[in-house]
UniProtKB/TrEMBL annotation:
Task performed by this protein: Allosteric enzyme that catalyzes the rate-limiting step in glycogen catabolism, the phosphorolytic cleavage of glycogen to produce glucose-1-phosphate, and plays a central role in maintaining cellular and organismal glucose homeostasis.
Pfam families per the UniProt record, alphabetical: Phosphorylase
Chloroplast listed as a keyword: no
EC id: 2.4.1.1
The entry's keywords: Carbohydrate metabolism, Glycosyltransferase, Pyridoxal phosphate, Transferase
Descriptive protein name: Alpha-1,4 glucan phosphorylase
Top class in the EC scheme: transferase
Family per similarity comment: Belongs to the glycogen phosphorylase family.
Lineage: Bacteria, Bacillati, Bacillota, Bacilli, Lactobacillales
Protein's organism: Lacticaseibacillus yichunensis
UniProt-listed PANTHER family: GLYCOGEN PHOSPHORYLASE (PTHR11468), GLYCOGEN PHOSPHORYLASE, LIVER FORM (PTHR11468:SF3)
Length: 798
């Protein structure tokens, strides 16, 4: 798209008048942002409109990515980049005396996800559009996103996230495409003379599902996909007048995002959310499909529906319902069509995160689906008990002990199932879903996660992006694998110096933000050691804290070490008190070391509040060390590990999740590995483990642990809880078992830091190896091997 500075100015002035009846110069920054976003939406409009019909007319297969969470991040700069008008627009803004970055910062980030899972969904949408796959998101438009986090006296406090306060410029409400989703009531099966079964519903609650569409713009190409998020409302003009309570029950469905990514929330509301967006999505997909095709039997040829984690697993039963009840297929044809249409990604090994619904709850909310799930279960048992035996089939079947296991339903109803990193897929096959993998061995495949270098490198890390342009030319901007060319510059001291300078520029910017946010003065010359991710015991922020206390003692004892700033950002689920205790601990340790003159700036801790995509965009480019220190066998993949390496941080890691692939990519000499492997963890668990003996044998560790309870850290009950988790409750996540090797690996990085070119060379090799973690490649693999929906003509549309 071509645009001159003058055109930008004219469009902006017109938008200011149209939207706010005022001149651009008079508007506050928030409205200037809105005017610009309005212009950009308008510029994308014609391509979006054309793209919607083009795929149907060409008969190109479409992917629908069903996910209960999406975290797109701010969209303005990303849309400008993808449309190819970032530079002229920024030049136009500057000519008008406006600061582009300040306008971008006016956008409220839609926090419609908890963490890695939601962010991955959005990265995939961006990537699908970039490589020319017709791939649409299907999810929920929450009125309130993930809570806003503040710290009060070191404790996490949650405030509502009112992200719609200033209107969401990007959305298009499509009331004409609304569908009705039914809950509760009774279902009777009416059989006519030909044996045709028709369900008759009585006393159901009807919910109006209204889609809100957002354009997902393909990078430098005419593909614009749609993220469709559904909003729950009372049915307009319904014959029955609803009570206020009945209306509230309906609107509650899309009021708030569950602030939890690893525990089954277990409430009726969560189940209603899941069915709501699954049913609305599938109804609209099938209706749309039938505008272009004669028979639903052809669905799998033109449509792939992806179940992202178990939250949308009801898609199996809901698609069956539509095919059986509304399109009158036989059970066998409906089942074949369903399985050929659906695929499923598992994103977790945590047992508490594997969703199960009590039969009573599901049967009351979704009586027709309950009938169908029982039939799926019955047929599954009938078919597989003979060959595999009662015991195995009992463990594999969807219904057991009054519970419905959603992962089982998803696996049985999908043609392909994938894990998100090699180790994770292997553990799924051999442990978590081993019975299902025995029955369906060919269904299980691996698709290691990816990230979008557009957001994390092109937009967030302009200094590194321009270094890459200068050193290897701009092709990496479209094909991330080209970044590998940087490896040829390994021995060029001028390139290493440039890399150091680029990182330094980012660190200066982050130091400014830390000063502004926390009032803490830090030096950009320190090592910026970063751990950013959800607060969870298995991710072991606690191990990082024990490392800080080790360094604290060393410095107080007179050792000299390179100055290090430990940067944390993390939200804890409001109900997860242990994780909140760790937040209190980090803030308390920060208070201690930041105010202790004896460590004299050689050790500082900054815990930045309200972690979200926009904050990550500030931290990631400034990181020297990336802490990926989960207990091996716990983190399905991780994606901050990929973002941080892309921007030149060196990873301090266990062999967990995608850290294993990162190690393969960079080689063991370019990553600081420590700790037990997943196998060693399992063996240690089996053999029995005595954390107290480890603490006893290491005086510094013993002292650090003592600090939790002896009053040197004013932690209140949090100190005892954490102390007991390690020494009384047997340290479930083997923090103490990995402690010594963690400290050792971290000290090796201190050593490397004393040689700036040596450090930069390792960072450079990380950047050069990062291209393979581009989400573009990941979605190409999904498209080729799972969805069978490769873009026409090698990725480009007409
Ligand atoms: C998660 C995993 O915990 C992460 O390891 C993974 O990177 C992410 C995307 O696959 O999915 N699963 C989950 O429930 N939340 C996540 O972030």
């Amino acid at each position: 798209m071509n645009l001159t500075k003058d055109q930008v100015s004219q469009l902006l002035h017109e938008a200011a008048i149209t939207l706010f009846a005022d001149s651009l110069e008079e508007l506050p920054p928030r409205q200037q942002y809105q005017a610009l976003a309005f212009v950009v939406k308008g510029l994308a409009g014609p391509t979006w409109a054309a793209a919607k019909h083009g795929a149907d007319e060409r008969g190109q297969k479409q992917v629908y990515y069903f996910a209960i969470e999406f975290m797109p991040g701010r969209l303005l700069a990303s849309n400008l980049l993808n449309l190819g008008i970032l530079e002229p627009v920024e030049a136009g803004l500057r000519a008008l005396g406006l600061d582009p970055a300040a306008l971008y910062a006016e956008e409220t980030e839609p926090g419609l996800g908890n963490g890695g899972l939601g962010r991955l969904g959005s990265a995939f949408l961006d990537a699908m559009a970039a490589v020319g796959i017709v791939g649409n998101g299907n999810g929920i438009r929450y009125d309130q996103g993930l809570f806003e986090q503040r710290f009060v006296d070191g404790y996490q406090v949650e405030l509502p996230d009112d992200w719609l306060r200033d209107a969401d410029v990007w959305k298009t409400r499509k009331a004409d495409r609304a569908v009705i989703v039914r809950f509760g009531g009774e279902v009777l099966l009416d059989r006519d003379r030909l044996g045709q079964i028709t369900p008759v519903y009585r006393g159901v609650e009807e919910v109006f599902a209204v889609p809100y569409d957002t354009a997902i713009i393909g990078y430098h190409q005419p593909r614009i996909n749609t993220m469709r998020l559904w909003h729950a409302e009372p049915v307009p003009d319904a014959p029955e007048v609803l009570t206020a309570a009945a209306r509230a029950r309906i609107t509650a469905i899309t009021e708030t995002l569950y602030p939890d990514d690893s525990n089954l929330a277990g409430q009726e509301l969560r189940l209603r959310q899941e069915y709501f967006f699954v049913s609305a999505g599938l109804q609209s997909i099938v209706a749309h499909f039938l505008k272009y095709h004669k028979s639903v039997l052809q669905l799998p040829k033109y449509v792939a529906v992806h179940i992202n984690d178990t939250h949308p697993a009801l898609a199996v039963a809901e698609l069956m319902r539509l095919l059986l009840d509304e399109h009158h297929l036989s059970w066998e044809s409906a089942w074949q069509t369903t399985v050929a249409t659906l695929s499923y990604t598992n994103h977790t090994l945590l047992p508490e995160a594997l969703e199960q619904w009590p039969v009573d709850l599901l049967a009351a909310q979704l009586p027709r689906l309950w009938q169908l799930i029982q039939e799926i279960d019955r047929r599954f048992r009938l078919r597989y008990t003979g060959p595999f035996g009662q015991l195995l089939v009992d463990r594999a079947a969807p219904i057991i002990d009054g519970q419905i296991k959603m992962a089982a339903l998803a696996v049985i109803g999908s043609h392909t199932v994938n894990g998100v990193a090699k180790l994770h897929t292997q553990l799924l096959k051999t442990q978590t879903l081993k019975e299902l993998a025995t029955i369906f061995p060919a269904r299980f495949v691996n698709k290691t996660n990816g990230i979008t270098p557009r957001r994390w490198l092109q937009l967030a890390d302009a200094p590194l992006a321009s270094l890459l342009d200068r050193q290897i030319g701009p092709r990496w901007r479209t094909e991330a694998r080209e970044i590998a060319g940087l490896a040829d510059k390994l021995d060029d001291p001028a390139v290493l110096d440039a890399l150091i300078a680029a990182k330094q520029a980012n660190k200066v910017a982050l130091a400014g933000y830390i000063q502004e946010t926390l009032g803490l003065t830090v030096s950009p010359a320190m090592i910026f050691d970063v751990q950013i991710k959800r607060m969870h015991a298995y991710k072991r922020q606690l191990l990082h804290v024990l490392g800080i206390l080790e360094a604290y003692q060393a410095l107080r004892a007179g050792e000299t070490r390179p100055a290090r700033l430990h940067i944390f950002a993390a939200k804890a689920a409001p109900s997860y008190t242990y994780a909140k205790d760790i937040i209190k601990l980090i803030n308390t340790v920060a208070d201690l070391v930041n105010h202790d003159p004896t460590v004299n700036g050689a050790l500082q801790v900054a815990f930045l509040p309200n972690y979200n995509v926009s904050l990550a965009e500030k931290i990631v480019p400034a990181a020297d060390i990336s802490e990926q220190i989960s207990l091996a066998g716990m983190e399905a993949s991780g994606t901050s590990n990929m973002k941080l390496m892309t921007d030149g941080a060196i990873t301090l890691a266990t062999l967990d999740g995608a850290n294993i692939e990162i190690t393969e990519a960079v080689g063991t000499s370019n990553i600081a590995l420590f700790g037990m492997t997943a196998e060693e963890v399992a063996a240690r668990r089996a053999a029995g483990y005595d954390p107290a003996a480890i603490a006893e044998a290491d005086p510094r560790l013993k002292k650090s642990l003592g600090m939790l309870i002896d009053g040197s850290l004013p932690l209140g009950s949090a100190g005892h809880t954490i102390y007991d988790s390690l020494l009384v409750d047997h340290d479930e996540y083997f923090v103490l078992a990995d402690y010594a090797s963690y400290v050792h690996a971290s000290r090796a990085l201190d050593q490397l830091w004393t040689d700036p070119h040596g450090w930069a060379a390792v960072a450079l090799q990380n950047i050069a190896a990062s291209g393979r973690f581009s989400a573009d490649d990941t979605v190409r693999r999904y498209a080729k091997e799972i969805w069978h929906a490769l873009p026409a003509r090698g990725g480009q549309e007409k």
